[in-house]
Amino acid sequence: MKDNTTSYYPISLGHNCIPAHYLELIGLRAQSLPFDWLLSPSHLSINYAVELIDTNFKYFLSHLQYDDQGIVFSGKYPDVKFWHHDLLKNRSNIGDHLENSEANQILAFERRAKRFIDIISSKNVFFINVFQNRQGRLKDEVTFFGNSVDRFTQLLKRRKVTFQLLIVIYDDVDFDLDETVKPRCLDNNVHIRKFVRNTSINPYFGCEKTFGKIMQEFFYLSPTYPDFSRHVEKLTIDLIP
Prior knowledge:
Elements: E1 7-12, H1 18-25, H2 45-54, E2 64-66, E3 72-74, E4 77-82, E5 85-86, E6 91-92, H3 105-122, E7 125-132, H4 139-158, E8 163-171, E9 190-196, H5 208-218, E10 237-238
Parallel strand pairs: 1-7, 7-8, 8-9
Antiparallel strand pairs: 1-10, 2-3, 3-4, 5-6
C-alpha cells in the first residue's frame, strides 16, 4: 500500500501464460511457479488451483501421459496441459531465465509446487487469473467458475493467507463486464477487470499498454510502461489501495 505497511507477492494462476507474461515484462515475476506456463479451460482454472492447494499438490504430476496432440497432462487433471513442457521426454519449448530449462522437468515442477506453498504460507500474495469471455459460454461454466472463486477465497482464509485476487476477463471484442462472471465474484478480496485483447497487435497477448493500465491500478509501475529497460527490482510489490 502507499503507506508501505503491506507488500504482496504477485503470482499467476493461469488459465494460460498471459499473467506470467505480463509479470515478466514488468519485472515482477521473481521465481518460476507451477501455473506460469500451463493451459487450462478458463472456467476450470480456479478450481484446479483449489484442488492443488488443498492437497499440497499431491496429484499435480501423477500419471503423466500424452493427449492426442502429444501434449502432456496429469491423469488426475486431464483438462490441464503442460503446454510448453514435455515432462516425459524432459523437453521444454520455452526459455525461462528463472530456472534452468535443461534441468529435469519433473523435478523442476516439483520445486515450483513446493515454492508456491512456501510463498503462500509465509507472504502476502496477489494472485492474477485471466478468464476468457466468449459468446455462447455455457451458464453452467460461469456458475462453476463463480463457485470456484468462492471456494478459493474460503480455502485461503482457512489457511490464514493474506491475499488479493485479480481476475482479468478478456475477449477479442468489446463486451459488458456485468454480463460475465463479475456478479458472481463478490468477495472484498476479489477484483474484476476487463481486457479487450487487440489481436492485430499481438494475436495472443494483445496490447501491452492496455493490459498495463490494469496492472497500474494495483502495482507501482513506471509511467512509461512498458519500458523494458527499467524493470522493477523488488521481489514483492506494494499494493495501491
